[in-house]
Amino acid sequence: MEKLKASLKIPSSFDWSDSDPCKWAHVTYDNQRVTMIQIPSQKFGGTLAFDVKELSKLKIFEVMNNQIGGPIPSFVGVS
């Protein structure tokens, strides 16, 4: 999650400042594993420069309608 955070330009109105990503808005965890990232239409920028496979329990990944560029990460190996 820290790699994802570092790769994005996060809008000032959005709070991902807590050192515990389990407390970040629009991120859902189950047993300390990320299961959902839902940040559509939130004015994010940057790129998705991280390995989605590291989030092995990710089921929902919504980033549409933002200003995010670059290649789409591979979801091979993600359930």
TrEMBL record:
Source domain of life: Eukaryota
Keyword Membrane applies: yes
Ranges where the Leucine-rich repeat-containing N-terminal plant-type domain occurs: 3-28
Pfam families, per the entry: LRRNT_2 (PF08263)
Membrane topology: Single-pass membrane protein
Keyword terms: Glycoprotein, Leucine-rich repeat, Membrane, Receptor, Repeat, Signal, Transmembrane, Transmembrane helix
Name recorded for this polypeptide: Leucine-rich repeat-containing N-terminal plant-type domain-containing protein
Predominant localisation class: membrane
Lineage of the species this protein comes from: Eukaryota, Viridiplantae, Streptophyta, Embryophyta, Tracheophyta
Subcellular location: Membrane
